[in-house]
Amino acid sequence: MPPQVVVTGVVDGQNYRAAAAPNVAFSGRNIVFTTVTLDGLGFENGSAVSGEGAHALYAQARNAAGLEAGASVSFTIDLTSPTLNITFRPSCT
Amino acid sequence: MTSSNVTVVFSAQDNFTSSAAIVVRNQQGQAPPFSYAGEGDFTVTLTAADLAGNFSTAAAHFIIDRTPPAAVGDLRVDVSTETGATTLTWSAPGGDPRPLAGYELRYRSAQDGILLNAANWASAPRRPTRSSRRRPAAPRRSR
Question: Are A82 and B22 in contact (CB < 8 Å)?
């Protein structure tokens, strides 16, 4: 049976208006290798992600039998409010 | 100020949420279109929220006034026996909570043989009155 990889703290496709703290949990027997990356770089599990923009979290595990499992989550940190302009115009009575 | 219905229009942009996905509501929580037909003084506040929950607000103020001012009831015509100049005098009609925008003078020549009335008002010649536009609320005098 391959290992299990569960990501919490962020949801795939979700936008956040504050820092997010992704956390990856690995489970299964005889796990010999795990890795977690954020935007292609090493990521300290559970640390806060505050940089505004789109992010991609990837986690992978492999057990002694050579079975692998991975999970990827894309999310966006959006700290900026939308711009809104309004005006009014007469319409037909 | 307008006597027509009013539509409040908006544009919303965000760095990570498409304009179509931005949620815009008025202060009653209603979705667009935002149309107003009732007479009155309106302040409409809209809120735009992006997918992350960031939001902005903006407001527009307008007045819908469909009530005409009261008719002038004391128009007086004086013709100078010395100069032949005609002087029109009247009082500003009351009863309208909004300020008057101006007066419009129209006339018919006695040679037409037609009295000026509501039915032929639109086709009657106008009397240019620059002064009536400048000071619409005070009693008028035109020569």
Answer: yes
